[in-house]
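Holo prediction — 2-acetamido-2-deoxy-beta-D-glucopyranose.
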Amino acid sequence: MALKFLELTLFSLLVALVSIANASDPDIVIDFLVPANSTGVNGTFFTYSGMRGIFDGEDPATFKVTKATFLEFPALLGQSVSLAVLQFPAGSTNPPHSHPRSAELLFVIDGSLEVGLIDTTNKLYNQTLQEGDMFVFPKGLVHYQYNANTQEAATAVSAFGSANAGAVSVPASVFTTGIDDSILAKAFKTDVTTIQKLKAGLAPKA
Ligand SMILES: *[C@@H]1O[C@H](CO)[C@@H](O)[C@H](O)[C@H]1NC(C)=O
Ligand SMILES: *[C@@H]1O[C@H](CO)[C@@H](O)[C@H](O)[C@H]1NC(C)=O
Ligand SMILES: *[C@@H]1O[C@H](CO)[C@@H](O)[C@H](O)[C@H]1NC(C)=O
């Protein structure tokens, strides 16, 4: 009897873990979701033109990400997809970060990028990508992109399996959220002065 109960408990735990691992945006039971204040839907609702002209004019001066999540493009809500355009001036980086709600499929459309991801055993998988290459960052894992070229810009488009993949920046989440200096000094096995230097470097420019 006791064994049966234990088996059942373990089985339920396994089912719960598997369903957490499979978690993605919730399925909707209608074709699409329309905002409550909508006065009627036509082709315009399924169109997002907010990125028109994104490649015209001057390249951005620093790394720039332009997102089309359900916040910018309401028709994506319930569809489990979104997109981002990543623009890397020469020598710029998208610092280590993770997306809690989706894998990322990155496609290099111009230039070259060094990319890397870190798995849950802290193993680094890195690669140098050329124009036309794709790379997948598994859901929730910390990753980065870097344009090592000091002369040429690089551009990538990333697709996500969530209407709002979310982003957790490693430097910002650790050093700009008010965690006590002495706690961080202990965690990073360093001194408070070093932590304060790191915090100062990441503080928003006035
Ligand atoms: C509905 O509400 C959203 C968010 O408040 C707003 O951006 C949008 O323009 C509204 N649409 C209509 C048709 O009123
Ligand atoms: C589509 O709907 C929008 C807002 O509901 C409206 O402004 C627009 O004129 C419509 N377009 C067509 C082609 O009917
Ligand atoms: C991966 O990273 C190592 C260490 O920085 C570097 O030496 C190597 O060139 C990188 N590999 C690729 C394919 O970019």
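READOUT: Residues 4 and 10 are 10 Å apart (CA to CA).
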